[in-house]
Write a structure and sequence with these properties.
The structure holds two protein chains of two kinds. Chain A is an alpha+beta fold. Chain A is built from eleven helices and 17 strands. In chain A, the strands form three sheets. Chain A has a seven-stranded mixed sheet with strand order 13-10-14-15-3-17-16, with helices on both faces. In chain A, strand 4 and strand 5 form a beta hairpin. The longest helix of chain A has 17 residues. Chain A is globular. The N terminus of chain A is likely disordered. Chain B is an alpha/beta fold. In chain B, the strands form three sheets. In chain B, strands 8, 9, 10, 11, 12, 13, 14, 15 and 16 form a nine-stranded antiparallel sheet that branches. In chain B, strand 8 and strand 9 form a beta hairpin. In chain B, helix 2 runs antiparallel to helix 3, helix 3 packs antiparallel against helix 4 and helix 14 packs across helix 16. Classes of the chains: A alpha+beta, B alpha/beta.
């Protein structure tokens, strides 16, 4: 009997913002390192997020024997890359200083955060500072230099902006620190930026992001879930920020209100998600996850192939270094961003 | 809801990475001779093969040839029904003796061959499958058609009382369950591509007659792939091509669905005044059902590709896809919703149903006496805004309880000389509509609970399952997987709607 070849994915890449070597699956009392396909999904997400080009969007199609966990794992890579990018304090400070007056923001102090708004900028002793006025009774003002600007994030939720009360930041700090390289967990937890948008069934996502994983360092494990990293918007409550938007397959309206960042990567979780909603996300970088057992696979693959034929350029070079598990087929192309 | 772990998903990827295929060529000279003889006979008949006289003859023999190559049972098994077929076709041949003297002897030779084969109690396909399944582990016997009788299940139980051999059809391989060996009965061309492209076993054994040519298929999903050496189809091990001069192509053996014939037989209802537009659905296990296909017609489906909350829902008949499950009443027949609605209405149901039948019947008679165009014009003259032929068909149908707008309903009542009762009938039809909605919601709730309870995997594997609904709404419903959908609608008697029927007698494969 002849065995098929099986290439292995390198355990981790220096370029990957996710410490894949630390992340382990949990099944009852058992733990184990991530399988190759799971590492590939995370790395792919990080690659796509890092390969953003304002002029041309990147589209990656995957055909796998099953699509379970692929979208959420790819989203972890996207969120990890996004968090790394937004941790650039200089760029973040410049962005804050350019915000319109009265833009709602949240200010983090320790593990609590308070809602406020931007008043403007002031120069103190030759140093530029952003001025934030809290929505508390005393209307306290904070003057923050670039070095402290990571404590301020634009509020993504108008309802939160109305509230004056302070909220506690809920985050699995150890788990996040062990999984995401070079990311400050508290800043990460208070940065309300939609890095990834998943088009899927909500209950499927709800299940997959709540499956336990372990972040293991030096034999010590810390259990968490992918939602600790993804911060799925439908699961965010009590003023907690979110990093991953969800557009349900059966939604009746287009999802434009959720996408303000052109760097957001859209994940289509399955043929039905892609066929129904690809038109609404034609400007964004996208990963299309197809299962070979889906009834509408041929239809979705035909559409993706047609899109490939109309592409601007092939981009095999962008992801060519990635080792793809033998069971997964990958197609990639770029096209002019609409 | 389907729950799974990374470990389970990983087992699927492991199968994909290591799976190999082995082809087992089975030989049987007598069955082979019959199959080749039939091929030559059909070629000789050429266009005559589809004539009224020869079509049933050819259809019957093709069906036996297909089942003989697809079902791992004895040639004499009642499931193949070869002996009965030979007797029926002999009578048929006698009637054509004078008209087709050139072919009659040939046809008799074929029937002799059929009689001889179908009298044998040996089962070469089963013998090969059993030998492969004797190896250690859990194995799946992959069938093109689910067994209709208990013959196969009994054989499996006798040979493998420990339950390590399970029969499945291809959709059963869409779950995360993996086997040590999949034993596919018949050429791979008869199965969906995912059987080999997303394998759920470390070994796929193909058991087929050696004279069936099994063309290879393009394994790529995309026209350009990043992984340039897609290894999924890496040289599957196949036995050398059989040294038989007379091969048959795998696709040629599968009898096509003769939709036109089926539509014709079902539409034989010209004398019936209660005719509706419907579409024929082929169901797992060889049954069929007509579902009303007018605008607004819906039926209850289970879609295992959906979330639990959406998996059971009412869906427009035009939106039903292959692979979904339609839910039909199998005790008492028909759609379950009206029956439950009647129970909710209690004593009032009789009066309201009579009223419904009365105005629907009168409207159908009016349309029959005049014509749809004239009736629409009269309705518009009587104040209807939405009278057109499509809406008129919907209004005549029992599925539509009343019009959406009162002015259209009033116009119908005027046409039927019922204008004085228009308000009363409108209100009673409104009561019926509410009862239908309540019944629909109640059934859906019960079904969602049952679908969540049962292993979706089991439903997927078997392709057909009975649901006993507990409590006061108790009843038996059957979920059937949709195998195929007629490309065109047909006009059929309303009594046939939502009643599953056996297509075997109607020779659904040509």
């Amino acid at each position: 009997m002849q065995e098929r070849g099986h290439r292995t994915v390198p355990p981790e890449s220096d370029a990957c913002p996710v410490a894949l070597e630390n992340l382990r699956w949990v099944d009852g009392a058992s733990r184990g390192p991530l399988p190759d396909w799971a590492k590939f999904a995370v790395s792919l997400g990080a690659h796509v997020a890092a390969a953003h080009d304002d002029a041309a969007r990147l589209v990656v199609g995957l055909a796998a024997p099953d699509r379970s966990f692929l979208s959420v794992l790819a989203a972890v890579g996207i969120v990890g890359a996004g968090a790394l990018r937004t941790s650039d304090s200089s760029a973040h400070f410049r962005e804050l200083c350019s915000l319109p007056i009265d833009t709602p923001v949240v200010l983090r102090s320790g593990n609590r955060r308070t809602v406020g708004r931007v008043i403007g900028t002031r120069e103190h002793s030759g140093e530029l500072k952003i001025v934030i006025q809290l929505n508390d009774r005393d209307k306290t003002r904070h003057y923050l230099p670039e070095s402290q600007s990571a404590r301020v994030q634009v509020s993504d939720d108008a309802q939160i902006a109305q509230r004056a009360r302070r909220t506690q930041i809920r985050i699995n700090e150890t788990f996040v620190r062990r999984v995401l390289r070079a990311v400050d967990p508290l800043t990460f937890a208070t940065t309300p930026r939609v890095h990834a948008m998943i088009v899927s069934h909500l209950s499927t996502l709800r299940f997959e992001v709540q499956v336990p994983f372990s972040a293991q360092v030096s034999g010590q494990g810390c259990v968490g879930t992918l939602n600790d990293l993804l911060g799925l918007r439908p699961l965010a409550s009590g003023g907690q920020s979110f990093r991953t938007g969800v557009h349900p397959i059966d939604a009746r309206k287009d999802p434009s209100h959720d996408l303000t960042d052109s760097r957001t990567v859209v994940l289509f979780d399955g043929s039905a998600a892609f066929l129904r909603w690809q038109h609404a996300f034609s400007s964004w970088d996208a990963i299309v996850v197809l299962s070979r057992t889906e009834t509408r696979l041929a239809e979705a693959a035909d559409l993706l192939n047609q899109m490939y034929l109309r592409r601007w350029e092939g981009t095999e070079g962008t992801l060519a270094q990635m080792e793809v598990p033998t069971s997964i087929e990958v197609m990639t192309y770029r096209e002019v961003r609409r | 809801m389907r729950q799974y772990s990374v470990v389970q998903v990983d087992s699927v990827y492991r199968c994909g990475a290591s799976c190999h295929q082995v082809v087992h060529s089975v030989e049987d000279a007598e069955f082979h001779t019959f199959c080749v003889q039939l091929k030559r006979f059909i070629q000789a008949l050429a266009d005559e093969a589809s004539s009224d006289y020869w079509a049933p003859f050819v259809r019957g023999l093709r069906r036996y040839r297909f089942l003989g190559a697809a079902v791992p049972l004895a040639f004499s098994s009642p499931e193949l029904a070869g002996g009965q077929l030979a007797a029926t076709l002999r009578e048929h041949v006698q009637r054509g003796e004078l008209v087709y003297p050139d072919y009659i002897e040939w046809a008799r030779d074929l029937l002799d061959a059929l009689e001889s084969v179908s009298s044998r109690d040996d089962a070469p396909l089963w013998d090969a499958c059993r030998a492969i399944a004797s190896g250690p582990g859990k194995h799946a016997l992959l069938l093109n058609l689910p067994p209709r009788g208990a013959d196969l299940s009994q054989r499996i139980e006798q040979s493998f009382p420990d339950g390590r051999l399970l029969w499945i059809t291809a959709p059963g391989l869409r779950s995360l369950r993996c086997y040590d060996r999949i034993i596919a009965v018949g050429p791979l061309a008869w199965f969906p591509q995912y059987v080999t492209d997303a394998p759920r076993a470390n070994e796929i054994h193909v058991v087929r007659y050696g004279w069936i040519a099994d063309p290879s298929r393009d394994a790529s999903t995309f026209i350009s792939t990043l992984n340039r050496e897609p290894p999924r189809q890496a040289s599957p091990r196949r036995s050398p091509p059989p040294a038989i001069e007379t091969e048959l192509d795998a696709r040629e053996i599968v009898p096509p669905v003769e939709w036109a014939g089926l539509g014709h037989s079902a539409a034989d209802s010209s004398e019936d005044d209660d005719v509706v537009q419907a579409r024929l659905f082929l169901l797992e296990g060889g049954d069929g059902v007509f579902l009303e296909d007018d605008e607004g017609s819906e039926t209850t489906v289970i879609d295992l590709d959906q979330d639990a909350a959406l998996s059971v829902r009412r869906l427009a008949v035009g939106e039903i896809e292959r692979g979904m499950f339609v839910l039909l009443r199998t005790e008492g027949g028909g759609d379950y919703i009206p029956e439950l609605a009647d129970r909710l209405l209690g004593a009032r149901s009789r009066e309201i149903r009579d009223l419904q039948q009365m105005w629907k019947r009168q409207l159908r008679l009016a349309v029959k006496a005049k014509n749809p165009g004239t009736v629409c014009a009269e309705l518009r003259n009587s104040g209807s805004i939405r009278a057109n032929e499509t809406n008129l068909r919907t209004w005549m149908s029992n599925r539509s309880l009343r019009t959406q707008h009162f002015e259209d309903f009033l116009a119908i009542m005027r046409l039927l000389d019922l204008s004085q009762r228009a308000q009363e009938i409108w209100e009673k039809m409104g009561v019926l509509r509410v009862a239908h909605q309540t019944a629909g919601q109640r059934v859906r709730k019960l079904l969602i609970a049952r679908v969540q309870e049962l292993a979706a995997e089991e439903l997927q594997r078997r392709g057909r399952m009975d649901f006993e609904l507990s409590g006061e709404d108790g009843g038996t419903l059957t979920a059937y997987r949709v195998v195929d959908i007629a490309p065109e609608p047909a006009l059929v008697s309303s009594w046939r709607i939502s009643h599953p029927f056996e297509l075997e007698g109607e020779s659904w494969r040509g």
